[in-house]
Amino acid sequence: MTVQQLEYVVALDSYRQFVLAAEKCHVTQPTLSMQLQKLEEELGVLLFDRTTKGVQPTAVGVKVVQQARQVLRQVQQLHEVVQLEKGELVGELRLGIIPTLAPYLVPLFLVALVEHYPQLRVQVEELQSAQIIQRLKDNQLDMGLLVTPLEDRQLREIPVLEEPFLGYISPAHPLYPHATITPADMGEPGLWLLQQGHCFRHQVLNICAPAPAATNRPFTYESGSIETLKELVRHNHGYTLVPELSVLQELDNPMVKRFAAPEPVREISLVVHRGFVRLPLLETLRAIILRQVPERLRAGRAKQKIRWR
Hints:
Elements: H1 3-15, H2 18-24, H3 29-43, E1 48-51, E2 54-57, H4 59-86, E3 91-97, H5 102-116, E4 120-126, H6 129-137, E5 143-148, E6 155-169, E7 180-181, H7 199-207, H8 226-236, E8 239-243, E9 256-259, E10 264-273, H9 279-292, E11 304-305
Parallel strand pairs: 3-4, 3-5, 7-9, 10-11
Antiparallel strand pairs: 1-2, 5-10, 6-8, 6-9, 6-10
């Protein structure tokens, strides 16, 4: 059994296609197939069922894949410990970030991070919270930027920001004249929401209880984008809630309304697996982010944190 064979097993489980798994491992498909067969012969079990619909791990294959991921994580950590001792930081950083944060935060840190670590290849992917959590556990991501707390013992959370929720209200809506808004105001009809699966949607619903069908709209629309929600308010009346980073350039816009104290916020953290060893990288990224945002957004201030699930 070799580390390379374990890499092939994990790749095949991730992509469920021999050709794609081989491509990701930078080998030919026959090479990957041969090495998998050798491992199966050594273990005396079938790890994957090959069907016309694709590749599926067998019952024992699922357990072997799980152990293989742990072994590969430990091998990776071994290399990273040596790099740190040498004062090097090379290789790859696989970072997952939620879609309601990515457009506003990634441009603030990406260039500065790669300039600070020129030998580091940074790969950023927009994913929903549940996907990031699972990929961190499966060693498919090194780091996540998402809303916390997660309350997961396998993961470590490093709070970075406490980002306020703000109202974004059409001039035609009854809430527009208000200087500030409260959660009680959110029962008004006309609330635009993100679609299912976004943690931001759950937080909005935890802040307020929107009126059910009491609207004059002959349609419904749930967006996957904060920017789309803002455009809907601008052109179709109603209101929505937005994170402050999405309106940093328009805080003087009268459509933007703050909540009365205590201001509801979402806690944003860098999240890594408990075994993550490249701590200088973690601290550097946190410092870069904090330099790029207003000081009032820094984590640790006494505000009302809204749970995301």
